[in-house]
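Attaching the record inline, Q. Sequence:
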Amino acid sequence: MRTTLPTLSAYLETFRCIGSDCEDTCCQGWNVPIDRITYEKCQNLPASPLATLISASLTKCESSAPSKTATGVQAKTGNATPFAQIRIDGADHCPLLTGDRLCRVHAELGEQMLSYACSTYPRIVHEFGGLKETALALSCPEAARFVLLNPCLPIPNLKAPETQSPRQSTPAPALDPFVAALEQGNAEDGAKPLPPDFIAIRESVLELVRLRSYPLWQRMFLLGLLCRRLDSIARGELKRSVPGFLADFKTAVSTGSLRPAMETLPVDRAAQLDVVLRLAGLMLHRSHVSPRFAECIQAFTAGIGNGPGATLETLTRQYTRAHEFSFEPFFERHPHVLENYLVNTIVRCQFPFGREGMEVGAEPQRAREFAKLTAQFALIRGLLIGVAGFHGASFSTAHVVAVVQPAAKHFEHHPEFLKLSFELLLESQMDGARGMAILLSNAEQKPATSVLPDIRVPSPYQNRPVARQEV
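Structure, as predicted:
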C-alpha cells in the first residue's frame, strides 16, 4: 500500500529534545532572549528561591521591543531585539540550569513559564498568507541529526491558502503547547499576504535542489541562474511572466540543454578555498568560540594541511585530495545529507525572498539571497571537506553532525554573519555568476600561489578575547 509522506512542517514538528543526553546545550554560549509576556510573568512570581534567582538573572534590553513576534525565535536567530534577556554566568551557561543541564524553570514552574524562544527552539516557524513553514535550527545536535541524516526528508507540501489552512492538521496532544506558542508568536506575520508567485517559485527551487540527475554544485548554479532571471523579470528587463519563465526553465533543466554551458564554467579551486577560509574566520573575533567549534576548526585546518609555512597552493592540493578521496566518496553514499541541509536552510531563510523580501510591498533581491545561501553552503561544504580529509576513511555521519552543529551555532545565530558574508563575496568579486561557479564547482583546480589567511584557533580557547554572542 502506498504511503503518503508528511509535509516537512508536520515532520519537523515531531522533533523531540533529548535533554541531558545531548552532547551540547542550547543554554550555553549565547544570551537567552525573553519576550515581554514572559518577563511580566516573572515579575509576578510568588517569593521562592527560584523566583529570586530569576529576578537576579533577568535584565531588560535598552531597546525593548513590545511586539510578541519580535521577541521569540526571531530574537534567538538574530532577527530582532528581545524585550529582556537572561545574563549568562561565568561559564557561559544559563544560571537557571540544573546540575544535569535541564531547565529549573520548566522543572519547577512548568512549560507555561518558558519564554517563547525557549519553548520553541530549535523550531523556526514562518507564517504568511495562511501558509506555514517549519525548519529546525541545526545549532541543536539532535535537530542536526534529525534533519541531515534522514534519507527521506519530506519536501514541503505547498498549497494555495484557499485550499489548505495552516491550522487544518491536528498535531499530537504533546505538541499542543508548542503549536499554541507558535500561533501566538506568529499571528501578525500569518495575516500578511504571500509575495506574488511565492508558491510556484518555492516549489521550483525545492524541486531543483533534489534533482539528482545533476551534481549538487550544478543544481546550485542553476538555482543562481533562476534567481538572476527572476530579478530581471521583476526589474522589467526580461519581458516574461513568472509562471511562463518557470515552465520554460523546468523544460531546459529536464532536457539538459544547460549542461554544456556549465561544463565550460571557470574553475579556480584556490580561489574557492580562499573564500572558504575567509568565511570560516569571519566571526572568530566577533563571537563566542565554543570548544566544539574550536575542535571543528582544528580538524578542518589539519585536514587541509595547515601548519608553519603553508601557502594557499599547498593547502589547495591537500584540500583537493581531501575532497576526492574522503569527502566525495562519503557524500556519494549519502547524497541526502547536503540536500537536506539546503532544504532546511531554504525554509529557515525564506529563500529566495528573504525576511525583508517577504514584507508587504517589498521587492525581493533574489540574486542577493542566493549569494547568502551560497556563502552558507560553501562554508559548510568547505569545513566538511577539511574534516573529511582529517578523518579519512573513518569519516562518518557523526563527524558531519560534529561539523554542522557547532558551525551553525557559531555562524547562523550571529546577527552580522549573513551581512558580513555577503560583503566578503562582494569584496572578493565572488557575488556574480563567475564567482558563484568558482565557489560551487567540484572540477579540477588551477595553480595557486597566494598565502593562507590564518584562521587557527589557539588553545586553550579561553585565551582568545571574544565578544559574547548576542542573539
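The longest helix spans residues 366-391. Residues 1-5, 65-79, 162-186, 444-471 have pLDDT under 50 and may be disordered.

More tomorrow.
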